[in-house]
UniProtKB/TrEMBL annotation:
PANTHER family in UniProt: OXIDOREDUCTASE, SHORT-CHAIN DEHYDROGENASE/REDUCTASE FAMILY (AFU_ORTHOLOGUE AFUA_5G02870), SHORT-CHAIN DEHYDROGENASE_REDUCTASE FAMILY PROTEIN
Keyword Oxidoreductase: yes
InterPro entries: KR_dom, NAD(P)-bd_dom_sf, SDR_fam
SUPFAM superfamilies the UniProt entry points to: NAD(P)-binding Rossmann-fold domains
Keywords assigned: Oxidoreductase
Annotated Gene3D superfamilies: NAD(P)-binding Rossmann-like Domain
Origin organism lineage: Bacteria, Bacillati, Actinomycetota, Actinomycetes, Pseudonocardiales
Name by which UniProt lists this protein: SDR family NAD(P)-dependent oxidoreductase
Top-rank EC class of the record's enzyme: oxidoreductase
Gene Ontology terms for molecular function: oxidoreductase activity
Superkingdom of origin: Bacteria
Domain Ketoreductase: 12-191
E.C. numbers: 1.1.1.-
Length: 249
């Protein structure tokens, strides 16, 4: 049987962007507690990450990197490889939010949202894939997108464009990679974090009214789906898995 016809093995070394807080930190914590080697970055290394590094010195590699600085993120990948060997999974989680009507959003802010949430993850993914495939290895890719990539929300025009773009890239990557890398996205509904703290009570009430369970998703409900896509034997590929309590149905 050719290698492509066998399941892609579970990830052993996972690189996660945007891990200083929120969902990224929850994913790092979950994986490292399960014995996975985890490399992660954000612009700031928070006390929470320092604490994890102290608890799991052999499994953690964290550093301060701005994902829009391609040279810095690529140097970080090489640093991780020197320590842990090949990085066989990437979680593109780092992103910036938006809370402004399109007509009121400055052009440089639109550019920054697109650079951080779409261009930089694609550039990092390209770099990671070249090194992974160049070594003849297979792997897993998880892009953290959003329900905003599939449904409309006022105040989130540029942000939604980046998330829809990443969902589309995920599908084309799955085709292009011919089963050597399982490429999927998770698309959460709104959950409490620094990013969503800008939502007002009126917006939250509207989301809750539209959600059958009457409650928001939590990061703890997103983490197991990301873990499954990274570690389980699965043939899920090219999908954007919505986790929003059916709020968008
Ligand atoms: N919260 C929601 O309601 C919601 C819903 C659907 C999808 N999502 C998605 O879920 C993911 C996590 O969001 P979250 O709510 O956990 O947000 P968050 O708490 O604001 O965390 C965002 C993370 O990205 C990092 N980051 C931002 N800009 C960066 C840059 N230029 N370079 C490197 N790291 C950067 C931040 O760290 P630094 O600031 O230290 O760099 C932080 O670790 C994002 O992709 C978001 O779009 C969120």
């Amino acid at each position: 049987m050719s290698d492509e016809l066998t399941p892609v093995p579970p990830a052993t070394t996972v690189l996660i962007s945007g891990a200083s807080r929120g969902l990224g930190l929850a994913v790092v914590t979950d994986l490292i507690e399960r014995g996975v080697r985890v490399a992660a970055f954000a612009r700031t290394v928070t006390p929470e990450l320092d604490n994890l590094a102290a608890r799991f010195p052999d499994h953690a590699h964290f550093g301060p990197v701005d994902i829009t600085d391609a040279a810095a993120s690529q140097a970080f990948v090489k640093e991780v490889e020197a320590r842990f060997g090949v990085v066989d999974a990437l979680v593109n989680n780092a992103a910036v939010g938006q809370d402004s009507l399109h007509v009121h959003t400055r052009v440089d802010r639109i550019e920054q949202i697109i650079e951080t949430n779409l261009t930089a993850p694609l550039v990092l993914t390209r770099f990671w894939l070249r090194r992974l495939l160049g070594k003849g290895r297979r792997g897993r890719l998880v892009n953290v997108t959003s329900i905003c990539g599939q449904r409309g929300y006022p105040g989130l025009v540029a942000y939604s464009a980046t998330k829809g773009g990443l969902d589309a890239a995920t599908r084309s990557l799955a085709r292009e990679l011919s089963g050597r890398v399982l490429a999927n996205a998770v698309a959460p509904g709104f959950f409490a974090s620094e990013m969503s703290a800008v939502l007002g009570q009126t917006q939250l009430d509207a989301i809750l009214r539209r959600t059958p369970s009457g409650r928001l998703t939590t990061p703890e409900e997103v983490v197991p789906v990301i873990r499954m896509l990274l570690l389980d034997d699965t043939n899920i590929n090219g999908q954007s898995i919505v986790i929003d309590g059916a709020g968008s149905i």
